[in-house]
Amino acid sequence: MARRIVSLLPSATEIVCALDLESHLVGVTHECDYPPRVRDLPKVTNTLIPTDASSAGIDALVRDRLKTDRALYTLNTSVLEQLHPDLIVTQALCDVCAVAEDDVRDAACRLPGSPAVINLEPQTLDDVFAAIDQVAHAAGVANRAAGVIASLRSRVDAVTARVAQRQGPAPRVALLEWLDPPFSCGHWNPELVRLAGGIEGLGREGLPSRTLHWDDVVAWQPEVVVIACCGFDTARTMEDLPRLDHVAGWTDVPAVQAGRVFVIDGSQYFSRPGPRLVDSLELMAYAIAPDVHPLPSHLPQPVRVYDVRAGHDRSTDRVRRSVV
């Protein structure tokens, strides 16, 4: 069994802990915050994103980094050396939002004992389950993966079984991962929408998210809109909502007219390809059909926004909010 594990992405941290290896976790990223106890562990990464950056500013910084193949996260090699890991879990999926794979391998080669390095690159829900199995094998606890995966699959099956019993056509859904500029959802998220009983017409299963024009969103005429900005909690996402006041045709979108626009914490849900993607599925199913899908007690209520039925105070640019 791996005695000392370092995780270089939040979803890997959650996988490690789901496998009951939390006591072997010695270092995490600056973003790892779940389960809460990992917040006290040494941080082995830093971010180049200013804490007060606007959404448009973050987008510009990301695009600039993509042009130069430079990640926005850097590795704190001195801390890593002090931790003496024998297993490092990282990723090769996103070119910007984690330490570059080459930097990790170079650092590992310089560490005493040459720790094992595994890369997780899930793009679908099944890939996430495979990643859990991959971590379990690398950590020497292969026998633990089956139970964790079976429990998660049973919850997915419960959602899809309720969807199969629901009457009527599947609603059009827009799951947005950014607002300035708007981004579609990508990778596993369009799949989650489908499994939850919706039709995602802007994102594509297994493919990266993409930049949209607001005209694209309005033209799709979604009946449900879920906003889960990548890396943003609910409060930070709310700061960008006034931009929607200036989107032509927005108030005529069926989801807005029906009061079915929701904000969900995009830092905790939808953006982390780990066990809590099943939580994300349950949140999406509840947002789509709360009369069919009960919200598990451990999950937060999606926040209803832009409810024209409750009224929208344009003079003060505030959205009156209510909970589902």
The unreliable regions are 312-324
CATH class of the largest domain: Alpha Beta
Counting DSSP E segments of at least 2 residues, the number of strands comes to 15
Known CATH architecture of the largest domain: 3-Layer(aba) Sandwich
Class from helix and strand fractions: alpha/beta
**Strand percent estimate:** 15-25%
* SSE pattern, N- to C-terminal: EHEEHEHEHEHHEEHEHEHHEHEEEE
From the 3D structure, determine the CATH topology of the largest domain.
Rossmann fold
Average of pLDDT: 89
The tally of structural domains comes to 2
Shape, per Cα inertia axes: globular
Radius of gyration: 20 Å
Helix content: 25-40%
Q: CATH superfamily of the largest domain, called what?
A: Nitrogenase molybdenum iron protein domain
How widely separated are the two ends?
A: 45 Å
How is the biggest beta sheet arranged?
A: 7 strands, mixed
Total helices: the number is 11
Structure description:
- It is a single chain.
- With 324 residues, this protein is an alpha/beta fold.
- Helix 5 (125-139) packs antiparallel against helix 6 and helix 6 runs parallel beside helix 11.
- Helix 4 links the parallel strand 5 (87-91) and strand 6.
- It folds into two domains: 5-121, Nitrogenase molybdenum iron protein domain (Rossmann fold); 168-323, Nitrogenase molybdenum iron protein domain (Rossmann fold, 3-Layer(aba) Sandwich), CATH 3.40.50.
- It is 34% helix and 16% strand.
- Residues 312-324 have low confidence and may be disordered.
- It is globular and about 60 Å long.
